[in-house]
Design goal:
The complex is a heterodimer of chains A (about 775) and B (about 160). The termini of chain A are far apart. Chain A has 21 helices and 30 strands. The longest helix of chain A has 25 residues. Chain A has about 775 residues and is α+β, with helices and mostly antiparallel strands. Chain A has 3 domains: about 200 residues, Aldehyde Oxidoreductase, domain 3, CATH 3.90.1170; about 350 residues, Aldehyde oxidase/xanthine dehydrogenase, molybdopterin binding domain (Aldehyde Oxidoreductase, domain 4, 2-Layer Sandwich), CATH 3.30.365; about 140 residues, Aldehyde oxidase/xanthine dehydrogenase, molybdopterin binding domain (Aldehyde Oxidoreductase, domain 4, 2-Layer Sandwich). In chain A, the strands form 7 sheets. Chain A has a 7-stranded mixed sheet with strand order 3-6-1-13-10-11-12, sandwiched between helices. A 7-stranded mixed sheet of chain A has the order 4-8-16-15-14-9-30. Chain A has a 4-stranded mixed sheet with strand order 19-27-28-29. In chain A, about 30% of the residues lie in helices and about 25% in strands. Chain B is of the alpha+beta class. Chain B is about 30% helix and about 15% strand. Chain B is built from 5 helices and 5 strands, in the order ββαβββαααα. In chain B, strands 2-1-5-3-4 form a 5-stranded mixed sheet, with helices on one face. The longest helix of chain B has 15 residues. The chains are: A alpha+beta (about 775), B alpha+beta (about 160). Chains A and B meet through α1 and α19 of A and α2, α3, α4 and α5 of B.
């Protein structure tokens, strides 16, 4: 058990940078200094003369040798306004964002490649850039893709329920708006891969820091014009991902580098390059109104939703598609009559946009939790009371939400009650009153999240494929494989535990295998690991166990109904003298007497008896792109903050979180996800921000300027669990990975607004940096 | 330009010819094949490449290789006793303080330094002590728990 952890703690990793192949060379990318410019000429002759440089790949080679990057989603087929640009991983004609690769250099050493980078002569014709979404929507704006005629990549309209009835019934209509800055996950290990092409067989082998090797294979083989069965990808140890490693556009160039040079090529992305070339996320603006009754009942929400997709939203990542869950997740935990959203996905001269923990659903949920704060404030009802009034009730599950989501189970009032108690809300509210008399500004924030998890969407690469294989080896040990790629979320631990529990074998007898593109499954994203691949694993393990029991009955001369297995030993519940170890059984099945010695009906099935593959699919998802999730966990957060009105600094005095993720597969793993997620959300709320200048230059391109939480910024967190089982999964488990940073971000913002209520400040955006907090205070005082 | 240096890494002496512009991180990874020292930001911001240089934690990406002439370097490999994990490492495993594992060796080296140099510390001091090591997975909570558990190992004499 915990073999991976034992390996990693002692430095024995298998991260991409640890991989060395004979004759391996290195790849670096050279990026554009301009956000928007035409490439007039590129001369690589001086770079090629540097000793140790093997090749320089520019847009010219890429256009000649590759197909355009495939679109990861395309809803134009169902009539949606959905554009997919023709995109290559290296710019050929013009650059559209600062840092966009204009060349890749393959050299014997990364430093040689860096030396050569300075010798590439490129003549640019700078074009006016557009880095502001509102400007990008103006008719006179510079165009990111001239052929489109405007910068609108996606325009969607969702009208859920009966919005007219909702607003007709309203006693008050309140304005609501909210903006989230551009942020991302930025794992400590950036992206990277090793590619090794064998020209005799035409096989491209790759090792990648990826969340989804099977999807990566599809993408890379398409771009490189290789048959899919000539590309194989092995997931290396992944040094954090958070959605940022769900894209392979740069990997295609590394593969091409190996094809061109005939040498294995390694690419380890620098941190600055990760900041500059994405993937980015958030950067959304909501503007609308909410219809309410005076008792706090929320009737409906109308809003315009703008998302800054950066350079391109469908090929270098999956940006545009995230708008669908953003809009569908607005109703969150509440019964509403109608929701109407008009959504625009706009391209600008910023880095590509792709997944980051929350993906899209986070945006709708945070908007709704900001709405609740507005309603609470304007109607002078405590925020938890607004939630209690509007919650979907425990007896209403499965609940068909307005947007089409089918909520599986939950007890939202119980979750909220529990967190109010753990957060000691009443006593903090008393302290808040006393503190104000002393000039101290304490605020209590509340947030509630229902996280749609486990997407299986049509017309995109995230269709919900999954696969697990469980095998007993000839010496009675267990091998587990699935597409639940280990990215630091703890899937090796949970897979070991789930398999051991079902099979009745010792934890130490289980080996979880590294994920590869051989395993047809979509990988890890959308908090799907606990749902899809785990579901497949459970089904495979159950079937395998049934076979094991049947075989043990045969050898022990006992009816299968009386055979049980504990700690890898079979025994008869009728006759305790009848025992055999799994090792003995495996030996019988494989060799002595071997398959020919088994009962004829078992032989006749033509199966490898001790290997079972299975899949899993959610019973509730449909072809409808607005109903694509399998489970819906819930969580509630309480944050108590103190705002120093002189400096704008925010400190967290208390943090409590209660989570209902159905059956917990492993408490440590779940808590690790929750703690890590909460702190990520706190970073987003207070300090993390990708700042672009008007000319499209990224100012926050390192950990110095992009301020992530350190150990000093992470609060003590009081945690509570509730387990309301999902009726639609194998063990009642639900996905939980993305909920924590959604709740923590918005609860901090709500708490800050509550602390600053004497100033009547409406927090318009995140992050609430010290500068912004001071600005809001000064503005409230007419300054 | 090559510079000859003599250095001791994990108690083993080495005579090396290093590129003047290479860093201690480069030498440890590329020459000595010590994989635990992770390339993070190469700007001294994330701490993933933290090693002990003459007993003190440094970001090995910020130290030029020629600077380590005559110095002693320790990495997590140097804390192993044969195949036996150091009690600090066990505390990390037992407290689920390793998620993606990329920051882990750096955090371990900083924690090892803190535990060997502070007999008592508050949570606040501990948080300050490891603030140079960024972790994106754990929110630091299990890491702090693990370091406190390691202190108990140390106080009970289970340490080296």
């Amino acid at each position: 058990m915990k073999q991976r952890e034992r390996r990693l703690v002692s430095g024995d990793g298998f991260y991409v940078d640890d991989i060395e192949l004979p004759n391996m060379v290195h790849c670096i990318f050279v990026g554009s200094p301009y956000a928007h410019a035409r490439i007039k000429s590129i001369d690589v002759s001086r770079a090629l003369k540097v000793a140790g440089v093997l090749a320089v790949i520019t847009g010219k080679e890429v256009v000649e040798l590759m197909d355009p990057l495939p679109a990861t989603s395309n809803y134009s087929a169902i009539g949606w306004h959905w554009r997919t640009p023709k995109a290559y991983p290296i710019a050929a004609d013009k650059v559209r964002y600062q840092g966009e690769p204009v060349a890749a250099i393959i050299a014997e050493h990364p430093y040689i490649a860096l030396d050569a980078a300075d010798l590439i002569d490129i003549e640019y014709e700078p074009l006016p850039p557009v880095s502001d979404i509102n400007e990008a929507m103006q008719p006179e704006s510079p165009l990111v893709y001239e052929e489109w005629g405007d910068n609108i990549q996606v325009h969607l309209e969702f009208n859920f329920g009966d919005i007219d009835a909702a607003f007709k019934e309203a006693e008050r209509v309140l304005p609501v708006s909210w903006h989230e800055a551009r942020v991302s996950g930025f794992p400590i290990e950036a992206r990277g891969c090793v590619a090794s092409y064998d020209k005799v067989t035409g096989m491209l082998n790759m090792w990648s820091s990826t969340q989804a090797p099977f999807l990566g294979r599809q993408y890379i083989s398409s771009a490189l014009r290789l048959p899919t069965n000539k590309v194989r990808i092995v997931a290396a140890d992944v040094g954090g991902a958070f959605g940022n490693k769900l894209n392979w556009w740069k990997d295609t160039v590394v593969g091409l580098g190996s094809i061109v040079t005939g040498r294995p090529v390694k690419w380890v992305e620098s941190k600055r390059e990760l900041f500059l070339t994405g993937s980015h996320n958030r950067d959304v603006t909501w503007d609308g109104e909410v219809a309410v009754k005076n008792d706090g009942s929320i009737l409906g929400v109308k809003a315009k939703f703008l998302k800054d997709l950066g350079v391109e939203g469908t090929n270098r990542g999956s940006a545009a598609m995230g708008m669908v869950p953003a809009c569908c997740s607005v109703p969150n935990a509440y019964r509403l009559k109608g929701v109407k959203i008009e959504a625009y996905g706009i391209v600008t001269n910023k880095s590509p946009y792709c997944a980051y923990r929350g993906y899209g659903k986070d945006k709708g949920i945070k908007f709704m939790e900001r709405i609740i704060q507005v309603v609470s404030r304007e109607l002078d009802i405590e925020p938890e009371q607004v939630r209690f009034r509007n919650f979907i009730q425990p007896h209403e599950f499965p609940y068909k939400q307005l947007s089409g989501y089918v909520y599986d189970s939950g007890d939202y009032p119980a979750v909220l009650r529990k967190v109010l108690k753990l957060g000691e809300v009443n006593s903090w509210r008393e302290k808040q009153g006393q503190a104000r008399k002393q000039g101290k500004y304490i605020g209590v924030g509340v947030a509630f999240v229902v996280e749609p998890a486990g997407v299986a969407a049509p017309h995109c690469i995230y269709g919900g494929l999954t696969q697990a294989r469980v095998s007993i080896t000839s010496d009675g040990l267990v091998e587990v494989e699935s597409d639940q790629t280990e990215i630091g979320q703890g899937s090796d631990i949970t897979r070991t535990k789930v398999a051991a529990n079902i099979l009745g074998v010792r934890l130490d007898d289980i080996e979880v295998k590294r994920d590869t593109s051989d395993m047809p499954g979509s990988g890890v994203y959308s908090s799907r690991g606990a749902i899809y691949p785990t579901g497949a694993l459970i089904r495979a393990a159950r079937e395998l166990k049934a076979r094991m029991i049947k075989l043990a009955g045969h050898f022990l001369n006992e009816e299968a109904a009386y055979i049980d297995i504990t700690d890898s030993v079979f025994h008869s519940t009728k006759d305790p003298t009848k025992r055999m170890s799994l090792k003995e059984l495996a030996d019988c099945v494989y060799f002595r007497p071997g398959p020919r010695g088994l009962p004829h009906d078992m032989q006749a099935k033509h199966e490898v008896l001790l290997t079972v593959s299975a899949s899993w699919f959610s019973p509730n998802t449909t072809q409808n792109p607005t109903n694509t999730y399998a489970t819906y966990c819930s969580g509630a957060d309480i944050a108590v903050v103190e705002v120093d009105v002189e400096t704008g600094a925010v400190s967290i005095l208390k943090y409590a979180h209660v989570h209902d993720a159905g059956t917990l597969l492993d408490k440590d793993v779940v808590e690790g996800q929750i703690f890590g997620g909460i702190v990520q959300g706190i970073g987003e709320a207070l300090s993390e921000e990708l700042v672009y200048t008007k000319s499209g230059e990224l100012l926050s391109n390192s950990y110095t300027d992009y301020v992530m939480p350190t150990a000093q910024d992470s609060p003590d967190i009081v945690l509570g669990h509730i387990e309301t089982l999902s009726p639609f999964t194998e063990l009642g488990q639900k996905g939980i990975g993305e909920a924590p940073p959604i709740g923590s971000k918005v609860v901090i913002i709500n708490a800050i607004e509550n602390a600053l209520s004497p100033f009547k400040i409406r927090v318009p955006e995140s992050p609430a940096t010290r500068e912004r907090v001071r600005k809001w205070i000064l503005e409230s005082q007419g300054g | 330009m090559k510079v000859p240096i003599e250095t001791k890494v994990n108690n083993k002496p080495y005579k090396l010819e290093v590129e003047a512009r290479s860093t201690l991180l480069d030498i440890l990874r590329d020459e000595l094949k010590i994989k635990s020292v992770h390339r993070g930001c190469e700007d001294g911001e994330c701490g993933a490449c933290t090693v002990l240089l003459n007993g003190k934690p440094v970001c090995s990406c910020l130290v030029l290789a020629p600077q380590v002439g005559g110095a002693e370097v320790t990495t997590v490999e140097g804390l192993l006793k044969g195949d036996e994990l150091h009690p600090l490492m066990l505390a990390f495993i037992e407290n689920h303080a390793i998620q993606c594992g990329y920051c882990t060796p750096g955090v371990i080296m900083t924690a090892y330094y803190l535990l060997n140099n502070l007999t008592e510390f508050t949570d606040e001091e501990l948080r300050k002590g490891i603030e140079g090591n960024l972790c994106r997975c754990t929110g630091y909570i299990h890491i702090i728990k693990a370091i406190k558990a390691a202190k108990e190992y140390k106080d009970s004499g289970n340490w080296w």
